What we know:
Layout: H1 3-34, H2 41-59, H3 66-93, H4 101-123, H5 132-137, E1 139-142, E2 145-148, H6 149-172, H7 174-184, H8 186-191, H9 196-218, H10 228-243, H11 248-268, H12 276-287
Antiparallel strand pairs: 1-2
Amino acid sequence: xxxxxxxxxxxxxxxYASLLFLVSMGLTLVFGVMGILNVxxxxxxxxxxxxxxxxxxxxxxxxxxxxxxxxALFAAAIVAGLILGGLLEFVLIRRAQNYDPILKLxxxxxxxxxxxxxxxxxxxxxxxxASEVVSRLGNIEIGEMTYTTYQLLVVPAVALLAYAxxxxxxxxxxxxxxxxxxxxxxxxxxxxxxxxxKIGLATFVIATVLGALGGALAAPTTSLVPGAGTDMTxxxxxxxxxxxxxxxxxxxxxxxxIGIVRALSVYVAPELEVAxxxxxxxxxxxxxxxxxxxxxxxxxx
Length: 301
């Protein structure tokens, strides 16, 4: 493999890993705090992507500002995340908090199926994209190679910023510290006066926004079609299983590992591209059944 091909693979891998991490971070946050494996999480990715693409397609003919189009991605993700997260947590998750874990898993699966059908009703089967954002942000030349500014700088920077903000929130704010306390023992946290219902709502909404943001940032480089949420659900579960349930920093490392190896396989062994995330997951789980970064004594985020 030539150095130029390796550079392209690394850029593609890091950009893909950044999107995967944003979605996986929300999934592992919900499990870490609420103990729920949210199968519906991939639907948030799809809704964020469709909402962002629709908003950008509406704005693009009406503005010349590349910054405004880029900010439209965030606006669409936040609105979609707040509506979906708040509604689903209040209607379903809160009422199922004391249910058996398997039943909660089935409830989120049912929610995912309904969200998929609603998505088809709203946007149909035609592909949506927000590629205008990539073209307006331009390219960067490094040596003889040309990369899009969006994939080289913007997407990884947003993912790292989201990670830093979430870590700051969890460990430096009052609400975040209450969230960590709820993670360790929900009943004890309640007895200490922590409003665990408020913590659950905040956690689920933040996770939903992160999932929607992953979809919104994918919209400029991907054609969104029905089934996009299903694919991302499976991939994000692979990341979370590889890292260990409830491990946010572990999800970052696992996303990079899966993203870069997957990108390299496109140039070396393209027939393995789809299978690479699951091969990595299986190999890790054979050696570390609880994931790479799980601490056996306590669940942490």
